[in-house]
Amino acid sequence: MRKISLLILILLSSFFSKAQYTLTDKDIEEYEVQVQQMVLYLEETLNFIGDPSVPANEKDIIFKDSYNKVFRDEEVQVEDDLDDNRGIAINKDVQAYLKDVDFFFDNVTFNFDIQSITPQINDLGETFFKVSMIRTIAGKNITGDTVNNSKNRYLEINLDPYKKELKIVSLYTTKPNKNEELRNWWNSMDKSWKEYLGHDYYIFDTISISRVGQILDNGFTLIDDTITANIAPIYETLKLITKTTDIDISNNQDITNLNPLTELTDLYSLNCSNTKIADISPIRNLNEIKSLNISNTNVTDISNLKYANIIQNFEANNTSISDISIIAFYKDLTNLSISNTNINDITPIAGCNNLTSLNLSHTKIDNLGALRKLDKLHNLNIGGTNVSDIEPLSSLINLHFLNIDSTNVSDLSPLSNLSKLNEINCSNTKVASLDALNNMMYLNKIYCDNSLVTKEVADAYRKNKSNVLVINETRALELWWEELPSFWKTLLSSQNNTSIKPTKEELHSIINMRSLKLNDIIQDIEPISRLTNLENLDMSNSMIDDLTPLYALHNLKSLNLQNTKISDLTPLANNNELRVINIEGSKVTSLQALHESKNLTKILADNTDITNEEVYELRKKQRQVTVIYQTETLRLWWGNLTSSWKDIFNNHIRCNLNPTSEQLQAIIDLEEIEIDHSLTIQTLEPLTQLMFLKKLIANNNQIQDLSPLEDKVYLEVLSLSGNPIDNLAPLRNLKALKEINLENTTISDLVFLSDLKNVKVLNITGTYVKNLKPLAEFNALEDLTIVNTGVRSLVHIENLPSLKHLKVYKTKIKSKHIELLKTKRPELNVVYY
User: How far apart (Å, rounded) are the C-alpha atoms in residues 54 and 43?
Assistant: First the structure.
């Protein structure tokens, strides 16, 4: 197949090199030959995928890259013909279709018998070729059944005579109808899925689409009625739904399958934990998914996800999976949690070099050899396994948290050089000595309850390391409870559904609480320091003014400090799990403590004294964080915008008529703005709020003043062609700029660009510039266009080392100087006439 494919591509390339723009009968004949070669290439590609002897990683190259040698792009639709029993036509993106060839068959061959090739003209007057062929599939499917069938299939192949390209744009049995596909998708969907996907979408302003039972030809049915209406708005709404990127159906007991997700090709995150889901094959072709949680489901097999290999977060706790071979393909994986599963072989993890968090607790593993080179690991939990030897962990120099509770480990010496270790749990083990932990300057907690560590050993360690909390006797926990104030006992026991006089088991349950809501009489939160597994803490409207006891809560993910007296977030500085924090109405003025919080995604900070500078410094460190802190200011800003600017921002962020605080902040956090020239603007003033703007395209408008851009230090791409700009002074300090387009502006002097040494592309066509001296030190410049200018000399740029492309026609430069330059710089592509 590789030889045939290479030959076909060579033939295509050689043909295109001599193709002409104007199509003659002879051209059409030659193109038809190329179409035949393209069909053969497609046939061989499908047979390559259908060959069980071909390694998965080689097939993955086709799925990700090679397919685009013959297909226009990843959105090309292919009507599914792999299931001969399917009654309804279903179209798939080309990558999904190719993956399903591998999924549905143990082995299969395709044969395309071309019946006709006819050139046709589309609605735009462009030529395309329609191929009529008989497709034959022969092989065995995944259930072992023999497959042998033929059917008529059609290919549509677009021709671009200017680019000299033939590209497949459609493959079908029946002509694709997107609306019909959407209707079939919705009509076949379970009610529970309709309620989930449709609850935030309305048609005709007042009808939630979740109430639509069936879409008809001229209307739709509700739960208790049939409505005759124009159904176009329904299709528009369904298209919006298919663009959903985040699905969280956790704890939803009504949803039992993932079938509707096949259409959500932009899905980024899926959480179906604690549901009745058993089959995850419907998501096998979702190429964008990066976070997947199937914990506490009925899933037993994850092999269908072998090509979902950009996943970064994967959780499958409390499932019956026993094979994680596919994890070997997940090179971007940072978090893997497969606690309480049937896994006994973790060899596939060995190459996941980006892993930072790994939970293997209560699995059937007994060997850690596969972890030896995973030196980015931060958290590791192997509690409840049969592991006895932790020597492979000796090289995990970035390990912070280690849980070996209830294992056969007896020797901690392999950990002696893990200087960054913060916490270790070796309870219920045969560990007797803590000497290996003596030189760990960041260690603050050791759990060694019910181990061979004696009271004397623990006391000796505490004496030498007074800052380390050593927990080795349950009695200590009981004493802690006895000393608690009564209102704390009531609070903890009520929220954990335990008695006010807890048993040993209940006491451990309390300290393993995941969520806690404090009442408004609490003034001291010292007891919380024991709740090290706490993930969600709500202290809103309490009298708390000090967070020091939270220093040890490394698992805290959500923290609500709304309307408290808290002013200092320093105790949160080492919390790497924090996702969301609410400091609205608090006295916090600094976000410095959160600069290293890499998992932080949202800070709610309205009605505080947080400044722009504080937010700016935080987002320089953690660009993923959204800080909502100036809602009232932004509402006023939005209210003062012209309709054109509102339309511009709406084109980038879908907003309500009155944007929410999150939508407003999302606008302010935009990094790219492209302004359609049909939206007339005279000023860039509304961009003053966009501190992290990296790309601005505003061609053919009425912009004169660039001063709103003078603080856009992250700006890399700037295109302002066709604007009456004559002063570049505001750009003088924008050192990140790499591409500048000032074509057909009124500038005459480049002096203010002289310090922008990172510029790679510069276009000053049709300007009044005469002197290129300011570019003399542009050593990164690769592409310079000075067409139709008054430039007379290239002496200042002719020796720039990176220059590759130079367009200089319609200038004052003499031809003999151009010839000298070509002789001096033969590698330089000079366009001059």
Answer: 16
